[in-house]
Amino acid sequence: xxxxxxxxxxxxxxxxxxxxxxxxxxxxxxxxxxxxxxxxxxxxxxxxxxxxxxxxxxxxxxxxxxxxxxxxxxxxxxxxxxxxxxxxxxxxxxxxxx
Length: 98
Hints:
Strand content: 5-15%
Structural class: mainly alpha
Order of helices and strands: HHHEEH
Number of domains: 2
Radius of gyration: 20 Å
């Protein structure tokens, strides 16, 4: 017979750990959020960003191996396991790109 251990509830489960400072700011300042959205619209409609997105989409379409496209420091795109790629975000959102 195995010894039963009482379950300890994770009190943080399902709770948001909070918002970033910028998210809080834009949530309380609609005029700043509108200005930011205008900038983002303009930025993402440039030819350079369109080409970049097209390249990423092309890369994702060509492979059906269950792996992610991982971005390296030197700008290359390599195939990598999903869990490894997504776990690399690092503590506090600091990147640790290959």
